[in-house]
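User: Predict the structure for this protein chain, please.
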Amino acid sequence: MSTDKRLCVTLRRSLIRSPVRRRASVAGLGLRRIGQTVELEDTPAVRGMIEQARHLLEVSSPDAGAMQGKSGRRAVKSGD
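Assistant: Here is the predicted structure, written as structure tokens:
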């Protein structure tokens, strides 16, 4: 496949009590902690790993700006 097809994948839920195979799929995507986002090439292998943990992940296109401004931390609201 061409390199212009990319996906942004974000881990949204915890891997606690997940089977070993599901944890391995998430690790294979390069995700380690909740809120972490990675940009991956859209291949059948990556799609298969996403399918294994679809209820734990959020998938978007990089065109949607999913990678911009993501530091992995939540914004803290000021108490004005």
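The longest helix spans residues 20-28.
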